[in-house]
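Hi P.,

Sorry for the delay on this. The queue was packed all week, but I finally got your sequence through. Input first:
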Amino acid sequence: MTESSSELTKKLSEAVEKMPAFPKSVQRILELSREINCPPKELVMVIEKDPVMTMKLLRILNSAYYSFPKQITSVNQSVVYLGLNTIKNMALSFAAMGSLPQQNAAGFDVQKYLMHSLTTASFARALCLKYGHDDTDPADCYIAGLLHDFGKVVFAQFMAEEFKEALARSAEQSIPLHVAEQQIIGTDHTVVGGMLVEKWQFPKQLTENIRNHHGAASPSNTVQCCLFAANQISKKLGLGNGGNPVVAALPSALVEYFEGDLDAVIAGLGDISKLASEAQVFAQVSKES
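Then the structure:
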C-alpha cells in the first residue's frame, strides 16, 4: 500500500460521503424507540408517512411466511400482531436494503451479501434472547448484525478494483477478507463501516461494535458477543455470502460466555429454519422492490 494514512482517510471519507443518506423516517423511528415513554402511535405515524416502507411492511406481513388469519391492512394492525420492536427492525431492514446498489464493478454479489446480513441479524437477536446476561435489547443485536458488513458495500461501490482484488486473495489463500483488505487497501470494511453508521447518526456504541466485530469480543459486551457468534454461524451454515470464506472458532472467552463451542451454540438455538426463512422473505421483498 503506497498511500499515506492521510490520503487513505481522505479516500475513505469521500467514499462514505457518496453513500446515500439513511431515510429521515428511519432515523426518526430509531430516535423515538430510544425514548422509554414513547407512545406507540408516534412510531406508527412516522412509518405511515413513508409509503414505500408501509408497502413493503404490508407485503411481508401478508406473505405466506406469516400466514395471519386475516389480511393486515394498516401499520397499526401490524404493531398489534408483532410488537413495536419487530416493526422497528423491519423498517430498519427496508432502509438498509434500499441503500444497496443493484450492481458494482467489484463483482460483489449484493443479494448473497444481503442474505448473510439478514441471517446474521436474526441469529444475533436469537442469541441475545437465549444467552444475554444483562438487559441488552435484542433489537440492538439485530441492528448490529444487519449493518456489521456495510463497509463492504462502500468498497464495492467506490473502491471496486481494490476490493475485487481483496475478494480474490481471500478466496485463493483462504484468509479472512478483512485481512486481505488490510493487505491491499490498507484498512478494512470494519473501519469504513463504522464511518458510515456514524454518518447515518446511529449510536456511538453501535459504531464501536461494528468497528470491532472481527476483534476479541468482550464478555461484558453482549452485542459484540452475539454479533461475533452470529456472523460465524451464518458463514458456517452457508446462508448467503459476505465474501469471507473463513469461519472463525469462538475464542475461549466466548466459549465460556455461550457455554460451548460454535457447534454447541448452533445446536442450542434449536430449529433455525424459521430464522433463515424470515431472512429469505426480507431479501425477496428487497429484490422485487
